[in-house]
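Lay summary. Proteins are chains of building blocks that fold into shapes, and those shapes determine what they do. In this project we predict the shape from the chain. Here is one chain we studied, written as its sequence of building blocks.
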Amino acid sequence: PFVCITEGSLDTMWLNQHGFSSVAILGAIISKRQVDLATRLPTQELVLCLDNDEAGRVGLNKAMACLSPNFMVSYIKLPKEYKDVQDVKDSELLKSIIKERTFL
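And here is the predicted shape, written in a compact code that computers can read:
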């Protein structure tokens, strides 16, 4: 099992509704405190599901660097027409995007 990390609470709720455990960092950049809290999560893999914009890309790079010493880290690639995971209304497409995540 894995836990998804999103930027916003609505993204997290959307993933939870589709059967994916998820937490929100409430912004694009993960904080040191959030990294510390993440180490307490009962998982070995974190899936970064950050927004499909410049802030999300910057946040993705920072999160990968901060989390990779403690976890297997992967990230999703949203098709360009989607800003974030809650824009993906097709449940099967959402599952496919997460299944086809990229590992570091």
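What the prediction tells us: DSSP finds four helices and five strands in the chain.
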